[in-house]
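help with this record:
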Amino acid sequence: QIDDTVNVMRQNIQRTEQRQGHVDHIKDQTDELSKSAQQFQRGTNKVRKRLWWKNARTLGWIFLGVAIGIVILALAIHFGRQ
């Protein structure tokens, strides 16, 4: 009966060691995923800023074109009356 108890205890210790190995593996995977998420976030922030500036430049050019068009139209109307 003591031998049975000793065997059960050894099995429990082996299972605990295996679980610890699994926990360590999961922790490593979690750390890697966290690093990947941080890198992804940095990358998306760069892309977001780049697209914001591209959008701002595009809108600037559009407003400049409209302003030039209005000036040309106003000059055409002004000199057309004379």
